[in-house]
Amino acid sequence: MRIDRLRLNIVSNFVATAWSALLNLAFVPVYVQFLGIEAYGLIGLYATLQAALALLDLGFTPTISREMARYSILQEKVQEARDLARTLEVIYWTIAILIGIGIVGLSSPIAEYWVQSKSLSTVTVQQVIVIMGFVAACQWPVTFYTGGLQGLQDQVLLNSVNIIMSTFRFGGAALVIWLVSPSIIAFFTWQILSSGMQTALLVFLFWQRLPSSQQRPCIRLHLLRSVWRFAAGMGVLSVVSLLLMQTDKLLLSRMLPLDQFGYYILANMLAQSLLMLSGPVTNAVFPRLTQLVAQGDRNAVIGLYHRTCQFVSVGVLPVGLVLAFFSPEIMLLWTHSAVTAQQTHLLVSLLTVGFMFLAMQASPFMLALANGWTKLNLYVGIVSIVVTLPLLFVLVNLYGPVGGGITWIVLNGALTPIYIHLLYRRLLPGEEWRWYIQDVGLPLIAALIPLTLLRWALVPTLSPIIVAVSILITWFVSLFSAALAAPDVRSVMIRQTWQSISTWRVAK
């Protein structure tokens, strides 16, 4: 039953992720066309701001996810689970209100001294930032309730809500700027409505899904004693991780003209989509892995962990290699703009390689959190920031936006093997080379072969349809090759195939 639920959660996560990716592919070019690249730069600025504000999460989201997963196997502590959820919820909403007030208060200096706009007036930029404050306050609690539902393993329900609300948000924004007003102010005004509706729905569903009790949930601050170490560790880790993830965007938003920053955000968004492929698997597996660690079942932990690593590799590596190898063709097909493709294709390739390294760290990161070990990620993150800041200043001044992409490759390429070695030495001694060879190496080599052949054979003068079909077929071949090369994935494929054949024979 647990395995079936785990598979269902993984499938639903992938469906929601694929749908979100499709919405991005469909609507981002529409936003750029109607609003212009500078206005899209403001959308990118909000995305960067929203990510940076996660610094204020204080570790509450991973804490609520981990604690709900633990409480789900401790039925005698239902009331304690509800009280802890209410205590963290009140703190989270207080932070949300303060965030909104802070952004509105800082709107004038941000518009005047930070954003470098050529076509948008300072007044317009300030108005947009004020609206951003309201959007941020409405959107902020979503991550908390998302973490809670993930911990309760109600990810099918969560993904259903995300699919509906993301469609409403993306599609509604496109209709507003098409039929009502092609302005960035109208775009962000719609975000207030859609974000508020999503948050309200998640609040209702989270409390409905929590196990019921005869008593109403109440604020009990002493419950924070049992979780404060993990929450504090995750809070500090979140600060370091988000500084690392957003430093390039924050610096480039100041160092580059708004149009060039818009191109960087566009390339970064496409490359960062690789993390959307690892997230569905690790988010679904994390609660179960946490339970196995709590039960002390080492063999089950090793088996589930390596299967997760291989599924992440099979999902991420073929897509990442396609983006890196065929970025000029993909950007032209996506945006229908030769100028945009020219400005972004090298950035996409560089950033994609950097994010491939980062995506390969997702499963090891999940293992560390399941064991409650946050120090390694914290130390690696601090070192990364120390290295990143001077690299960005030097390389961006020398090469412009491309310097940001080079920084990602240098940083993640150098730190990934160090991180992997330290993690395995403590948590899974003797399993490190299995990760390098079976979990990552074999799928990588298998995926590279068909992609290399197509890159060599592809003729630039081919029609867009033929190019698109060729890339799609090659990706599928690369995906199938990577799946066959990963031992655990191959075993699952063979077992599922035989089960399907047996079922078909019985039915016949």
Structural account:
The chain has 508 residues and is mainly α. It has two domains: 226 residues, no CATH class; 281 residues, no CATH class. The protein contains 21 helices and no strands. Helix 1 packs antiparallel against helix 12. The longest helix has 34 residues. The model has no long low-confidence stretch (mean pLDDT 82).
Give the number of domains.
2
Summarize the helix and strand pattern as letters: HHHHHHHHHHHHHHHHHHHHH
Strand content: under 5%
**Uncertain segments of ≥5 residues (pLDDT<50)?**
none
Number of helices: 21
Query: Whole-number average pLDDT?
Result: 82
Q: What composes the largest sheet?
A: none
Distance between the termini: 27 Å
Task: Please outline what is shown here.
With 508 residues, this protein is an all-alpha fold.
Index terms:
single chain, 508 residues, 21 helices
SSE layout:
Layout: H1 2-35, H2 37-53, H3 60-71, H4 78-105, H5 107-114, H6 122-139, H7 142-151, H8 155-180, H9 184-209, H10 228-255, H11 258-272, H12 274-295, H13 298-325, H14 327-335, H15 338-360, H16 362-370, H17 375-399, H18 401-427, H19 432-457, H20 464-485, H21 487-507
Helix pairs in contact: 1-2, 1-8, 1-12, 2-10, 2-11, 3-4, 3-7, 3-12, 4-6, 5-6, 6-9, 7-9, 8-9, 10-17, 11-15, 12-13, 12-15, 12-16, 13-15, 13-16, 13-19, 13-20, 14-15, 15-18, 17-18, 19-20
